[in-house]
Automatic annotation (TrEMBL):
Similarity annotation: Belongs to the nitroreductase family.
Pfam families the record matches: Nitroreductase
CDD domains: YdjA-like
Cofactor annotation remark: Binds 1 FMN per subunit.
Signal peptide, first to last residue: none
Alphabetic keyword roster: Flavoprotein, FMN, NAD, NADP, Oxidoreductase
Cofactor(s) it depends on: FMN
GO molecular function, one term: oxidoreductase activity
The protein's name: Putative NAD(P)H nitroreductase
EC number, as in UniProt: 1.-.-.-
InterPro entries named among the record's database cross-references: NAD(P)H_nitroreductase, Nitroreductase, Nitroreductase-like, YdjA-like
Amino acid sequence: MQYKEAIELMINRNSMKLVTAPAPSDEELSLAFTAAMSAPDHGKLRPWRFKVIRQENTKTFVDYAINLRQNSDKPLTDEKLAAVRQWIDDVPLFITIACHIDYNSQIPEQERVLATGCATMNLINSLQMMGYGVFWSTGIATYIEEFQTGLGFDPLDYRFLGFLAVGTPKMSIPQKERGDYHNFVEEWSAPL
Ligand SMILES: Cc1cc2nc3c(=O)[nH]c(=O)nc-3n(C[C@H](O)[C@H](O)[C@H](O)COP(=O)(O)O)c2cc1C
């Protein structure tokens, strides 16, 4: 593939929330996780941690998240809950994301969280380039400690960063207006 084609795929990528089976195959997931391993990473800490939740376990994951949220001090309204259910019950694969906190490391936490974000972006780009729909969510119970612990990411050792919903898009993925990069890029030549 020419580099322009690869870049075009990134330029035209869009998240897609509404997905259904089939999920990526083991081979496709393996390729995407291999790409995640190439994220920039100060100190070679490889702080990213992912857990794959396959279709036979998605109901357990979703019910666990929703029950914790509904028993929290900020339960979803009936209307919101119905909308969440309509989306999430059809998702055939989730990938949870966390950053490992290494207390002995000299590398600041924000750098490790950024490296985890970069690894996740490689994962997202790879899966989207294969034609899958991907949506990064920090919704439902992401910020409830018990949820993080239940997923195996003890908040003492990990920063939980949400989950990817992955599957086959239910419809063609709408393109978004992305804005003009000139408004985000400036030249610098000397201290202000
Ligand atoms: C760390 C992170 C967490 C996110 N959490 C949510 C979320 O909980 N709910 C939501 O509607 N969008 C969330 N988003 C945004 C969507 O994943 C998606 O990026 C957004 O809908 C814009 O689509 P795009 O990726 O095509 O630009 C999150 C994005 C990131 C990077």
